[in-house]
Amino acid sequence: MPTVTEILETMDYGPAPEASGEVMGWLKSRKTFGHYVGGEFTKPGKTFDASNPATGERLAKVAQGSAKDVAGAVKAARSALPAWSKLPGHERAKWLYAIARHIQKRDRFLSVLDTLDNGKPIRESRDIDVPLVARHFYHHAGWAEMLDDEFPSAKPVGVCGQIIPWNFPLLMLAWKIAPALAAGNTVVLKPAEYTPLTALAFAEICAEIGLPKGVINIVTGDGETGAALVAAEVDKIAFTGSTEVGRAIRTATAGTGKKLTLELGGKSPFVVFADADVDGAVEGVVDAIWFNQGQVCCAGSRILVQEGIVQTFTKRLHARLSKLRVGDPLDKCTDVGSLVDPVQLARVRELVAKGEEQGAVLHQAECRLPSKGSFFAPGFFTNVHPANIVSEVEIFGPVATLTTFRTPDEAVELANNTRYGLAASVWSENINLALDVASKVKAGVVWVNATNLFDAAAGFGGYRESGFGREGGREGMREYLADPSPRAKPEPEPGRLDAAPVPGTPGKGVATIDRTAKIYVGGAQKRPDGGYSYAVMGKAGQIGLAGLGNRKDVRNAVEAAHKATGWGQATGHNRAQVLYYLAENLSAREAEFTARLRSAGVPKPAAEVAASIRRAFYYAAQADKFDGAVHSTKSAHVTLAMPEPFGVMGIACPNDAPLLSFVSLVLPAIAMGNRVVAIPAQSMPLAATDLYQVLDTSDVPGGVVNIVTGARDELAKTLAQHDDVAAMWYCGSEAGAKMVEEESAGNLKATWTLPNRDWHAADGQGRGFLLKATQVKNIWVPYGE
Ligand code: NAI
Predict the structure, then answer these.
(1) Which of 28, 193, 438, 721 has CB atoms 3.0–4.6 Å from 222's, for a disulfide?
(2) 263 among known catalytic residues
(3) Structure confidence at residue 487 (pLDDT)
(4) Signal peptide location in the record (predicted)?
């Protein structure tokens, strides 16, 4: 026993373990878990072990789900769907409230189970995970209650397949299940193989409260079970996990019509300016990268410190690091627990060793690690070269990199120097500076003078390769409601694409028609790279020629679009003015456009031009009105939900209503600040190429709208594959839609493959288009006390 003097000198804490008897008793009584399907646990067949990573001891045996098990669960969810989706929202809300209350009643039990299964400190499961789980169900009970008012005539998606990771086992379950149920969907959820136990305890809660059978189904298993769920007859897949698996799921669901949301990895910047509250920022690092052993998708894993304070900052960070208590996760004094599994430990060790080999210097807490379990001492790297593996790869362990910057511009450049875009944290006492950086950083969540704050009322999700879709709040609810589905209309045949030399091009064959539309790149008409054009046929034969664009033309157009950065920064008012001007100029040439469409044999030419003009005025009006929201989330904060443009978008238009469909797709995209590379109707591109002069005379800056004519699906493929295109809309054939979704997996661009429709109908325009043209950035700002 240490003496009182010794205790006072060291200020060591004695052990304060949370009791685990009740949970261990529960596990002992269950021993082996089957899947939870149709309101009952199945008889387990093949099983695997669920272990406590802090000790290595087995906690239970859990069934390994086969494709047949998954199919059975999907069937149960399908049978439960009609009754559940028809329940009035108020009735579904009652079930969600019941779940929330039961979570609260069992909070201690669930915290201990979460900690045993995952290795996270009890302080975190008890004070963060489980309270947020309850909050999520309460919040979404409210959405169920208000569904009809807030989302009039919206329908649930159907049966949702949900695949979750192991870092926040119960919280991720809540993020997935609560909105799905509120919207009237039924669910098959697969927890991660390392952490299946809280999901099974949750299943028991569902059974206990008498939730209608089949509404929630839990199938346990590994990646193969996950892949079987992706392939099953579900209407939506919601996935959280690694970018690699996210990419595989994107490819596997391409062309299936399954709605998809992906919440993937990150390498999030944590930017500290010289005028920051240094102690606050150091404490921020604790919550950013040492929280949950760094196994957090939005962990602030790249600390960027302004040069002037780096010494002070590093010194205090060292001091704080040395005070972290690493050890038994069940101990209430523990700050850092165990990684989730020996496999993860090996992965972290390997990455950290490679980082050191490549010259980075590791500063690690000098703590005595428990002799058993998957513990890794927290730390950070200095002397890190940008090309070092630890600068680029998500370590998913309690180790950050620390580098410096000089100016705010440099900070933004470094912050954005990653293929990810999940989160960012900005520390400065200068509100102008902090909010300026928040606006420039490419991330779905930005915390100002804070980090890792979450709330059910705020959306969460990434930019770039961190995935697409949002969880939480209104945006999250939308992901569980079916997209409005206008009656699909087959598009006319595109016609032949016979290449002919562009008139005047030296070489064989001279076309007899002088009306040749070039392509439009960077605000100028350009001869297509290949030097060829193709005949555009009208009612009475050929009515002109259009440039036959190729991959190089698409690449040039993307480059030109990239250069037009000012458009995204222009105010809504500026963009509205340009669009009004465009609408006016189009109206001034109404007769000419009508005649052109008539000669092309387009049905209802006058109506099409009139509708296009109206649509241009509509999106001009929306340019400064479609805006975000301010969420009331945590105390002392508000969360700004700002719809931001993607940047460069690709748009492939249908062979139908060639002017109206072009205007209906391109204008909402640019109204929101995107720059566009558009492929107009292959059969009648002249409707779009006639717009060149309208664009020129309407002050649309060069590079904002780029038009490449030619073989739509070939050009669309190049756009879908292009890493500098952030989002892609495709309206055409089913095969083309599948191709676009598949090819977009490279940089995980957000895609929207919409069926052709009657473009004259009311649903040819509206806020739905603007929603698809934007991604929401959630910015957490200090506000009040
Ligand atoms: P993972 O992405 O393989 O696992 C996440 C979930 O996906 C699990 O439920 C798993 O069973 C399932 N899964 C795996 N392969 C699948 C497939 N082909 N189809 C459908 N579902 C599949 O992540 P893993 O291997 O556990 O961890 C590896 C790395 O991934 C981590 O070190 C970390 O860098 C990253 N990761 C990121 C997470 C995040 O929240 N962003 C969460 C978990 C891991």
Answers:
(1) 193
(2) yes
(3) 85
(4) none
Q: Is residue 502 part of a domain?
A: no
Is 550 in the same domain as 584? yes
Predicted TM-score of the model (pTM): 0.96
Whether 466 is in the pocket of ligand 1, judged by its Cβ within 6 Å, is no
Residues 246 and 280 in one domain: no
Same domain flag for 287 and 353: yes
Kindly state the DSSP code that residue 460 receives in the 8-state scheme: B
Q: Do residues 584 and 615 share a domain?
A: yes
Q: What are the pLDDT digits (tens) for 653-711? A: 999 999 999 999 999 999 999 999 999 999 999 999 999 999 999 999 999 999 999 99
240 within ligand 1 shell (Cβ under 6 A)? yes
- Take atom 42 of ligand 1 and give the residue whose Cα is closest: 241
Residue bearing the CA closest to ligand 1, atom 27? 242
Asked, for residue 201, whether it belongs to a domain, the answer is yes
Helices 89-105 & 197-209 angle (0-180, nearest 10): 120
| Residue 11 counted as domain residue | no
Please say which residue of 459, 493, 523 terminates a domain: 459
276 shares its domain with 246: no
CA of 696 to the centre of ligand 1 (A): 49
* 3-state DSSP assignment of residue 587: helix
Do 235 and 295 lie in one domain? The reply is no
* Euclidean distance between CA atoms 762 and 491, whole angstroms: 18
- Give the Å distance between the CA of 193 and the centre of ligand 1: 10
The reply to whether ligand 1 has any atom less than 6 angstroms from the CB of 471 is no
Kindly indicate whether the ipTM for this predicted assembly is greater than 0.90, answering yes or no.
yes
Options 263, 465, 475, 608, the catalytic residue: 263
CA 173 to chain centre: 17
Give the closest residue (by CA) to ligand 1 atom 28. 242
d(CA 245, ligand 1 centre) in Å: 6
The parent domain of residue 100 ranges over 22-262+478-482
- Note whether 321 and 195 are same-domain residues: no
Query: 278 alpha carbon to ligand 1 midpoint, in Å?
Result: 35
Nearest CA to ligand 1 atom 19: 227
Give the H or E element holding residue 642: strand 637-645
Q: Whose CA is nearest to atom 16 of ligand 1?
A: 223
Same structural domain, 277 and 163: no
The pLDDT value recorded for residue 359 is: 98
- Could you report the per-residue pLDDT of 240-289, keeping only the tens digit for each? 999 999 999 999 999 999 999 999 999 999 999 999 999 999 999 999 99
Residue 514 has what pLDDT?
53
Averaged pLDDT score across all residues of the chain? 96
How does 295-321 read in b/e, with b if 16+ C-beta sit within 10 Å? bbbbbbbbbbbbeebbeebbebbeebb
* The two three-digit tokens of residue 716, written as one number: 């669309």
CATH code for position 282: 3.40.309.10
Number of Cβ atoms within 10 Å of the Cβ of 661 = 25
